[in-house]
Amino acid sequence: MELLTYMAKSLVSNPDEVQVKKTERGNTVIFELSVAPEDMGKIIGKNGKRAQAIRSIMKAKYLKTGKRVVVDIVG
Q1: What is the enclosing helix (H) or strand (E) of 14?
Q2: Can you tell me whether residue 35 is helix, strand or coil?
Q3: Residue 9, number of CB atoms within 10 A of its CB
Q4: Confidence of residue 75 (pLDDT cuts 50, 70, 90)
Q5: Is 22 exposed, middle or buried (0-12, 13-18, 19+ CB in 10 A)?
Q6: Where are the domains of the chain?
Q7: DSSP annotation of 33
Q8: Which of 41, 43, 50, 75 could form a disulfide with 37 if both were Cys (CB 3.0 to 4.6 A apart)?
Q9: Single pTM value for the model
């Protein structure tokens, strides 16, 4: 959770508005990343590449645990 928070705060203009909520359902870990509406573009990136990179990093982090990771980005 700290890694996702750190990455998000590094990318946005309003780091104080970054919030991460973690929920576990069975074999799935769900992260809900909330940012200010004006920072959505910075998190998603061009053609969603930044969002995909964030998801890939989080999946790699949880790879050894055998859990599935979902990162939802909300504005």
Answers
A1: none
A2: coil
A3: 15
A4: confident
A5: exposed
A6: 1-11+34-75
A7: E
A8: 75
A9: 0.91
